[in-house]
Design brief:
2 domains; single chain; 13 helices; Endonuclease Iii, domain 2
Length: 203
């Protein structure tokens, strides 16, 4: 699926090439079953938490709505803040998730068929108007929901840490430095990021 990307990255970066050979084929597959609303809610839940903790909280949130696999925007807006807080969401994340729900109903967060046709810049412009949704959250949607191939989340701790490990550095690269180095990975920076995340698996 990502043959052209792997060929390009292997030629463009010898250090990354060694990681690619170690990890094997890229298994980055877009989450087709998740709506943009669900993807944003999940990303907000994961902010500043490890995956296990975030998934535990999301499981508790979903349990509040036993009639659905995942709550709809109007479900979230109708839920008292205290219930969402009881599931483990912080006050700031409750406010953010409710704003995501409101903006979905308003049409700022569009259905998948619409958002899939938008350029990255337009998606950033629309979604960063939502409370608690910054560039990182939009980058996660672009990579994991829409399958955009050329996104480099330079502020992501895992990408920065993976870079430090793979390139044998004692310190984390600054985002600007990572972006500069990542120019050689274009137009497949999302794939390079996926490999840097995998570079942490043995640590």
């Amino acid at each position: 699926m990502h043959k052209a990307a792997i060929e390009h990255l292997t030629k463009a970066d010898k250090v990354l090439a060694r990681l690619i050979r170690k990890v094997g084929p890229c298994e980055l597959i877009p989450r087709k079953r998740c709506s943009p609303f669900q993807t944003l809610v999940q990303s907000v839940a994961h902010q500043q938490l490890n995956g296990t903790a975030a998934n535990t909280i999301l499981k508790r949130v979903r349990a509040l709505y036993p009639w659905r696999k995942f709550p709809a925007p109007h479900d979230v807006l109708a839920t008292p803040d205290e219930k969402l807080r009881g599931a483990g969401l912080s006050r700031a994340k409750v406010a953010s998730i409710k704003d995501i729900a409101a903006k979905t109903i308003e049409g700022i967060v569009t259905p998948e068929r619409t958002i899939a046709k938008m350029p990255d810049a337009e998606i950033f412009e629309r979604l960063t108007t939502i409370r608690g949704v910054g560039p990182w959250t939009v980058e996660m949607l672009l990579i994991f929901k829409l399958g955009r191939l050329d996104v480099l989340p330079a502020t992501d701790f895992g990408v920065r840490k993976g870079f430090a490990v793979v390139y044998m550095r004692d310190d984390l690269p600054k985002p600007a430095e990572l972006l500069e180095h990542g120019e050689r990975w274009r137009p497949y920076r999302s794939i390079a990021s996926w490999y840097l995340w995998r570079g942490l698996d043995g640590k």
